[in-house]
Write a structure and sequence with these properties.
Helix content: 40-55%
Strand order of the largest sheet: 3-4-11-10-6-5-9
Strand content: 5-15%
Radius of gyration: 26 Å
Low-confidence stretches: 189-197, 381-390, 449-458, 540-544
Distance between the termini: 39 Å
Shape: globular
Number of helices: 24
Structural class: alpha/beta
Largest sheet: 7 strands, mixed
């Protein structure tokens, strides 16, 4: 542009969320570094909901576990440091997993660097003292529980993500399912032939601004139909009430409510269409077969008894992602697949879906998601007497009983346990959060089968892993529980300034991705605790 244009230009480059040495090296080699103004825009957490923040890093799972690139951990640490500078230090940092430990170490290092680099005035000291509004930070590494995201999500929001896909709180849906957008429908007469082409896909906003969606999102899909039916009948009754209006005041009141009725009716139309589309998917024999295999594996059934069903899925040309999810689930839960059977499945997959998937299978092996039992990695499971040593593989066989991951009787209409989100399976990742926040409840449901939680009190996050130390040893990765303190004078000053009347917040961070179903389970815990749990994660979901 500079060579070909007669006028001079100024060039600016803004890196989001940070500038890197590598990028500047590339610009320098291209000979343009001196001609540009370079700055960074530290955009970290994006608020997707009032209780949900995300870094929206779509590749963070592959970066962390396949390419072993620590960049997502660093970006998450930077984002959490901004919260600490604004609201005070997390008084306690508890977590599980090797990358989670690296995050905690990075936060401690950044804190020391901040102290060393800042002037020692009172305001900066206050920013580096324990918060009076935050109770603790809980960090869960995705690799401690690979099985949960491999299962098919069964909440309404989870199934929308499985069937249609949700990105940045939006789903792109065929307009034949949810209808044409109102403004497009109104302007269709003037746009001529171009409107039908544009109207094939419609973007639907899926967040709490839609009150109906807020009610439906975290419920098990089994009851969504009856909930929609109730809303439809209520709207019909409210709308029919206009015939009973006798006075002018009553009529005016109805007219004032009309925009609300119309908005709710539009929302009802959208979600009825979406629910019907999902039902077409969930009522197929293939979906039922897949779900049966997944639930049998999660419950600890003999894996070889499920192989005929998996072979049938491949023969029927089921989507490759679904087949691989089932095989990876078996590998994670059962400590690998028998060598001969794994080789047979690999051969079938390559013949049915194409030999380009040699690379896919190789990547899954590197991720330790698809292994043979003869593999040295698959055979490594934590021993109960291993002391403080971190587990090298999550032992689902032990944890299924110790933390009661399978709940036989689940009431989807009025759930009393997080297992409702998978119709009988409680996500291990969220059970670990319960080990810290809901000790008394978890003790009561596990006491019958094991004394793992003996002595666990009601101290919640202030007691860390206490009472569940033995169970946690059987989960992959490093276990840590650290307390952050500040100078006595600064701590007293912060307490005086902020007071201590507010409910304290617990931050739950998922490093490497989280599913919508796990978010629903965490919201269920938050309601039970009558407090607020904030959930943070680099991407929102990572399985695509």
């Amino acid at each position: 542009m500079q060579r070909e244009s007669q006028t001079g230009h100024e060039f600016s480059i803004f890196w989001v969320p940070r500038r890197t040495i590598v990028s500047e090296k590339i610009l320098e080699e291209a000979g343009v570094l001196g001609d540009t103004s370079i700055a960074e825009f530290p955009l970290y957490f994006l608020p997707l909901e009032k209780d949900l923040l995300s870094l929206e890093l779509d590749d963070s799972f592959a970066d962390l576990y396949l390419r072993r690139d620590p960049t997502p951990t660093y970006l998450l640490a930077r984002a959490l440091m901004l919260i600490q500078q604004k609201h005070g230090l997390f008084p306690r940092i508890t977590g599980k997993g090797d990358n989670a430990k690296k995050l905690a170490d990075l936060l401690a290092r950044m804190r020391q660097e901040l102290i060393a680099g800042e002037d020692t005035n009172e305001s900066s000291k206050l920013g580096l003292t324990p918060s009076t509004t935050i109770e603790s930070l809980i960090v869960i590494d995705r690799e401690v529980d690979y099985a949960t995201p491999l299962l098919t999500q069964l909440t309404y929001e989870g199934l929308i993500d499985e069937v249609v896909g949700i990105q940045n709180n939006q789903a792109e849906v065929d307009s034949s399912i949810v209808g044409v957008a109102p403004q497009l429908a109104q302007g269709s007469s003037t746009t001529g032939g171009a409107a039908p082409a544009q109207a094939k896909k419609r973007k639907i906003l899926l967040d709490s601004s839609d009150k109906l969606y807020e009610q439906l999102r975290d419920t098990n899909f089994a009851i969504v139909g009856s909930l929609l039916n109730k809303v439809a009948r209520r709207l019909q009754t409210d709308y029919d009430s206009r015939h009973g209006t006798r006075t002018t005041a009553e009529l005016r009141d109805f007219v004032n409510k009309l925009p609300g009725y119309q908005a709710e009716q539009q929302s009802l139309k959208i979600h009825t269409g979406l629910a019907e589309e999902i039902m077409k998917h969930t009522r197929t024999d293939q979906f039922s077969r897949l779900l049966e295999v997944q639930q049998n594996l999660a419950a600890g059934a003999d894996p070889s008894s499920q192989h005929d069903a998996i072979e049938e899925l491949i023969s029927r040309d089921a989507p490759l992602a679904e087949v691989l999810r089932v095989l990876c689930l078996e590998s994670c839960i059962s400590g690998g697949i028998k060598q001969r059977e794994l080789e047979l499945f690999k051969k079938m997959i390559l013949q049915a879906y194409g030999y380009q998937h040699i690379l896919t299978l190789d990547a899954l092996e590197k991720l330790q998601l698809l292994l043979s039992r003869s593999s040295p990695v698959a055979s490594m499971i934590p021993m109960s007497g291993a002391g403080a040593a971190a587990g090298t593989k999550t032992n689902y066989t032990y944890l299924r009983k110790a933390l009661r991951l399978i709940v036989d009787e689940v009431n989807e209409h009025d759930p009393n346990d997080i297992a409702y989100v998978y119709s009988g399976y409680a996500p291990l990742s969220v059970r670990l959060v319960q080990c810290i926040l809901q000790k008394q409840y978890l003790t009561s449901i596990t006491r019958g089968g094991t004394n793992t939680a003996a002595g666990a009190g009601t101290g919640g996050a202030s007691q860390g892993w206490r009472g569940f130390d033995e169970a946690v040893k059987h989960v992959r990765g490093y276990t840590f529980d650290e307390i952050q303190k500040g100078e006595d004078k600064a701590v007293k000053a912060r307490a005086l300034l902020s007071g201590s009347g507010e409910k304290k917040i617990v931050f739950v961070v998922f490093l490497g991705g989280i599913t919508f179903t796990e978010i629903a389970a965490l919201r269920f815990i938050a309601k039970k605790e009558e407090g607020t749990i904030k959930v943070f994660q680099p991407p929102l979901t990572y399985w695509r």
